[in-house]
Amino acid sequence: MNDMTLEAWMQAVLDEVECALQQWVPADAPAGLGEAMRYGVLDGGKRLRPLLVMAACEAVGGQRPAALRAAAAVELIHAYSLVHDDLPCMDNDVLRRGKPTVHVRYGQAQAMLAGDAMQALAFEVLTPQDDSIAPALQARLCALLARAAGHAGMAGGQAIDLASVGRPLDEAALRDMHRRKTGALLQGSVLMGAACGQLDATALQGLSDYGAALGLAFQVVDDILDVTQESHTLGKTAGKDLNDNKPTYVSVLGLEAARRHAVELRDQAHAALHRCGLPGTARLAALADKVVDRDS
């Protein structure tokens, strides 16, 4: 796979992850729960987090079977978070990945349960009962994912987001919110892929810094697209943050300054990869470029 173009590599990885999710997300969970879970996670999204897991694993020469499980697990966590974020008690969204949100399709209670079940399944996927992943690596991957998703990461960032509606935030406070809400899971994806191999402290710090910069860049671009693109392009409701009076990088910095900041963060991500000293980071660098250059 090393000789593939980026697009061919991405498609191969996406096919592999989709196949794994098809296999591991149960269709036969009781009372329609499996159908709601599969609706929430299959056949949609950019799958950026799994791509980061697999690219980081390849950069460190890691164990691909473990990385594939990590890639599926992080996507399950991401999908569960979207299902819950879209609920009326939080962001109250009706469109996600170009189709009705899970609670619109299946009802609020089923959507809540589907998200709960996907969160639990992520850790089940990381802890197979055979000997395919060493217990120490299982524990490391679970710890990285839990910390990225929990109170210090994604859930904490969402709590700040909900508490900030209608309140002015300065750039430092906005950065802290998005470092947790969005950045932590993207950075965690890089670190989970890296954990599947061996690397020294310098390389690990470089990959961590790369993940942090890319995570913020993703959110800055998300905020830009929210005010510059249409809903059919985004696959979700455009302009919703502005309508809900939520602070964003565009509302705090202005549109052009936000665009410049996204480029600055991409450059920081590239510089962090250079500090790693690893020879196989070209795909990670290309993914940072795609994050900033995307239009949806």
The main β sheet shows up as: 2 strands, antiparallel
Number of helices, counting only DSSP H or I runs of 4 residues or more: 15
Order of helices and strands: HHHHEEHHHHHHHHHHH
Mean pLDDT: 93
Strand content: under 5%
List the strand order in the largest sheet.
Answer: 1-2
Radius of gyration: 18 Å
Q: Would you identify the regions where 5 or more consecutive residues have pLDDT less than 50?
A: none
- Taken from the alpha-carbon principal axes, the silhouette is globular
Count of strand segments: 2
The N- and C-terminal alpha carbons lie at a distance of 27 Å
Portion of residues in helices? Answer: over 70%
Given helix and strand content, the structural type is mainly alpha
Please provide a written account of the structure:
The protein is mainly alpha-helical. 71% of the residues lie in helices and 1% in strands. The chain has a two-stranded antiparallel sheet. Helix 4 packs antiparallel against helix 6 and helix 4 packs parallel to helix 7. The longest helix is centred in the C-terminal third of the chain and has 28 residues. It is globular.
